[in-house]
Amino acid sequence: MQNASSTDRRTKQRAYYAENRERLLNYKKERAARRSPEEVDERKKYMSEYRRSDEYKAKRKTYRSTAAQSFRGILACVRQRAKKQKIPYRLTINDIAVPKYCPVLGIELKRNAGHFGPCDTSPSVDKLTPKLGYIPGNVRIISNRANRLKGDCTDPMEMIDIANDLAARLTLQRLVEMAVM
Question: Which residue among 23, 67, 115, 133 has its CA within the 20 to 30 Å range from the CA of 95?
Fold first, then answer.
């Protein structure tokens, strides 16, 4: 939770930037113009070596992945939800692996590209023990549909009753289909 001093500090920083925007931009341009050719070459050499490093490649691979990009957005929403509900949040993108298929329903997890909001196959963060909050080891990624089904159920026995009812209807439907053949 943010305290009052950090909020005041941000407000002051924004006000300072708004008042001094032109001066700050000019300073940045002047500083870039004052760099010697050696400094520019040194920076280019450093960046070239960094871009060949395994650390950079791992970061780029994670960043380029559309699943990871959408998952960053999901984590941002989860962080806000945890803050609002006042429950612990200590997740990073490295704490959770996004599976290709939903472990509950077995459907392929994919982003709702081109549309606003999540769809049934969108990845969703599921808390195994809700009281513990969003901490490593207490969360997993399942489909949005599976998470909604779990969330709508207030009694575990109700979920078993639904499963039994579905199994009975499917069995009955199969028997009818076999009789028709």
Answer: 115
